[in-house]
């Protein structure tokens, strides 16, 4: 149960070609892309949840106890986001190790700390002074058509 499987991203493309297993690279690329998409989806969901917690719970806290509980929720969401960011970073590194073509590396960028800031642009895009604020690259990314199926990613009328 604790056996390590040598994946092409660990061995390298040259070793895989030498072993006659170059076809495995394409399979792992598909696997890593799917797992990166899952991690990005989870990051988006939890960052949106964090924005909602700020808007509805933290700002509305009337007492010290309510404020403490609200910040505990924010820190809980931050921990989950951190786990998903480290997961995504691992998959991004493996995509780069597999010598993924430019289409992968243009679509999947490394996550920076400033990409993870919760902006109220998500909650209210018409707020004064928000014209020059932009969202991180993964908010506009259509992960396997999920923006067509999600009410959360569609703008309300």
Helix content: 55-70%
This entry's quaternary arrangement is: single chain
The number of helical segments is: 6
Largest sheet: none
- Count of extended strands: 0
Radius of gyration, rounded? 19 Å
Structural class: mainly alpha
Strand content: under 5%
Low-confidence stretches: none
Termini separation comes to: 51 Å
**Average pLDDT score:** 78
**String of helices and strands:** HHHHHH
Task: Describe the protein's topology.
Elements: H1 8-11, H2 13-19, H3 23-58, H4 64-97, H5 102-107, H6 146-149
Helix pairs in contact: 3-4
What does this structure look like?
By secondary structure, the chain is an all-alpha fold. Helices cover about 60% and strands about 0% of the residues. It contains six helices and no strands. It is elongated. The termini are far apart. About 20% of the residues are buried. The model has no long low-confidence stretch (mean pLDDT about 80).
Task: Give me some keywords for this one.
157 residues, 6 helices, mainly alpha
Quick take:
The protein has 157 residues and is mostly helical.
């Amino acid at each position: 149960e604790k056996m390590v499987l040598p994946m092409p991203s660990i061995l390298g493309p040259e070793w895989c070609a030498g072993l006659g297993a170059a076809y495995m690279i394409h399979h792992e690329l598909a696997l890593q892309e799917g797992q990166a998409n899952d991690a990005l989806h989870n990051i988006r969901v939890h960052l949106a949840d964090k924005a909602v917690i700020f808007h509805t719970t933290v700002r509305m806290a009337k007492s010290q106890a309510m404020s403490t509980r609200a910040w505990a929720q924010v820190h809980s969401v931050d921990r989950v986001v951190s786990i998903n960011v480290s997961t995504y970073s691992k998959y991004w590194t493996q995509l780069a190790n597999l010598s993924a073509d430019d289409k992968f590396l243009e679509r999947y960028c490394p996550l920076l700390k400033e990409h993870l800031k919760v902006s109220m642009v998500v909650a209210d895009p018409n707020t004064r002074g928000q014209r020059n604020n932009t969202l991180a690259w993964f908010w506009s990314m259509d992960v396997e058509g999920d923006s067509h199926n999600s009410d959360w990613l569609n703008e309300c009328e």
